[in-house]
Design goal:
By secondary structure, this protein is mainly β. It is built from no helices and 23 strands.
Length: about 350
């Protein structure tokens, strides 16, 4: 039988496997003999997975040996409470328990379940605009630690498996038994986890929890490949430049016009509130240095920021577009990663 969920029990809809070699041995592991003393030849399963050995001798110990078909792994033996529905083949030897028949007895309960290994994986990427969706031009992140935990279909917990993303951000867990697993991503330094489950395409969204880095549990069947478990991360951005004395009031930084130190610069959101950084903390006001420069760091990509310059005593603010004097100038920018004006 083909164990699609790996629980070691014949469930409805799980197909038989054709062409599996089945042999019969005696208690000593030698080829078994029939009631006439003849060696019993090995057989192969039919299209529905069934096999049968006939003309056996009552009172003799027989052991059924199954040879795992290519590409399959054995299900756990003796699961569940119904011996007619479980797998009897040892996962190490392929052999059943010893069976002794009485005259006229037919024992149709010696079964073997197999599954084909499953795969879980996909991609860790830099979500440059912070929208939680993989888009053209957003690169993979290499060197990210990814850990798989969970249980096989028969309820057996697995030993955690750890891999590292390649230079292109891809990772994969292969040769898995059918079961239910959780993928946990270790957040790279100087990033935050993007919001999961954005957009309508599960193959392009982020699945890592912002707080734990873990995906929701994922169930895979025999021979299934699930390449949709992704994680997106934001790298912080920066914004800043220069406050200077526009001596000719033309709104242009001309040679010889000095910077102004000690100017208070406030970062706001689009609604005029104090802005927040990539970690959702309020951004403190900046003060220009002696050369007039300032900078806001650790900002969140994809957010509209407004820079509010508080004119120092004795100064008014010149327009950036004409020579018109203003009491307040704002500069709007949708900030890409690692940007400074």
């Amino acid at each position: 039988m083909g164990g699609q969920n790996g629980n070691g029990v014949q469930d409805a809809g799980e197909p038989g496997i054709v062409g599996v070699t089945v042999s019969l041995e005696d208690a000593a592991g030698n080829p078994a003999r029939d009631i006439n003393g003849n060696i019993i030849a090995a057989t192969t399963t039919g299209t529905n997975g069934q096999y049968q050995f006939t003309n056996l001798k009552p009172g003799v110990v027989y052991v059924v040996k199954f040879t795992a078909p290519s590409g399959y792994q054995p299900s756990s033996a003796d699961k569940g409470s119904n011996d007619t529905k479980d797998s009897d083949a040892s996962i190490t030897t392929g052999k059943s328990q010893q069976v002794t028949l009485t005259g006229g007895e037919n024992n149709p309960t010696i079964d073997a379940g197999y599954y084909r290994p499953a795969t879980i994986g996909d991609y860790v990427w830099e979500d440059k605009n912070g929208n939680g969706v993989q888009e053209a031009g957003e690169p993979g992140i290499g060197g990210v630690t990814v850990t798989l935990t969970g249980t096989k279909g028969d309820g057996t917990p697995i030993t955690p498996i750890t891999v590292t993303t390649g230079t292109n951000g891809n990772y994969q867990f292969t040769n898995l038994a059918p079961g239910t697993y959780t993928v946990t991503f270790t957040k790279p330094a100087n990033t935050v986890t993007t919001t999961p489950d954005q957009g309508g395409d599960d193959s392009k969204d982020s699945d890592a929890s912002i707080t734990t880095g873990a995906s929701v549990p994922v169930t895979v069947q025999s021979n299934e490949t699930n390449n949709t478990i992704d994680a997106g991360y934001l790298r912080s951005a920066s914004l800043g430049d220069y406050v200077w004395e526009d001596t000719n009031a033309n709104g242009v930084q001309d040679t010889g016009e000095p910077g102004i130190g000690g100017v208070t610069v406030r970062l706001e959101d689009a609604a005029g509130n104090q802005a927040r950084d990539i970690n959702n903390n309020l951004v403190a006001n900046a003060t220009t240095g002696t050369n007039g420069q300032y900078q806001f760091t650790n900002l969140r990509p994809g957010v509209v920021y407004v820079v509010n310059f508080i004119a120092p005593n004795g100064f008014t603010t010149t327009s950036k577009d004409s020579g018109v004097q203003m009491t307040k100038t704002v500069m709007r920018a949708r900030v890409p990663a690692n940007h400074s004006k």
